[in-house]
Amino acid sequence: MELTWIMKLRIAAAAVVGVVLVGVVCWPWQSPPDPFGSLVLKEIGANGAVTLLVMAFLAGLFSYFASWPYGREIGILAAPFGLCLWSVRAGSMGALIQLNPTLTQRSEILAAMKWEPLFWLLVVACGFAGVAAGQRIVSRFRNQQSQEKTDLKPVNFLYLIISVLLSAVVVVFFLKMFARDVGVQNNEIEIVSVQPALWQNIFAILMSFGIAAFLVKLFLNLSYVWSIISCVPVTIYAVNSYMNSGVLESFVENYPAAFFPNVIVSILPVQMVTFGAIGSIIGYWMAIRYDYWRKHEL
Q: Which tens digit of pLDDT belongs to each residue from 187-200?
């Protein structure tokens, strides 16, 4: 799939559909009540969560036809592109910590945040489901099996676990490398990190997940899905490093809100999943392009 100008227009069409349905239409209902607050799942509520899931499904469905005939490959970007607007307007982890200064408040926030990526993954999955529904509609309209259907091959379950864990390790390594700001020395922790700028975090997430998906496709020949899923263990690792015995208490007593024991903690789950999904898809296609170049153009 060559990236011609018409292909770029198809990608732009999918992005517009996602931004409008998920990013613009849903945001007024789900935005944090405090204008200086940060977006966390508990602020959305049940009705807001259901609305967001439905809109993500519709975004995937409409973008499948907007990016025809490559809807299966491009339409999956609609929901993550829609969440991009949320991620940029979601605030920062530093602001969230500042609004929850006590040990009890921070413990509750972090305990809930540990599993929050599962919801944002569900939003992305609903976008994927919308694309699958579009394929089914086309298949029935043609009254035949869709020729676009992915060839599903049996995969060793161990390979899937390895791909998720490999992706998590790669992502953690490169996030620590790319998501950097000033830091200070600490006796208990080697470096205490300061909240990086928003676009620094976005760059770090895109690069880290892109490299992980590239390696998973190149060496294990598996989908970008498993790299996207790795955002769950990455978030759990980061939150646990903050909630480790004595660490959270030390930061509550001795450091401002924008300081973290691990720079990955400074990334909100919605940002991790959103840009992790986009980066993984880019890395996957770059691996395909690299493999083709290595075999046919060298």
A: 555 568 888 899 99
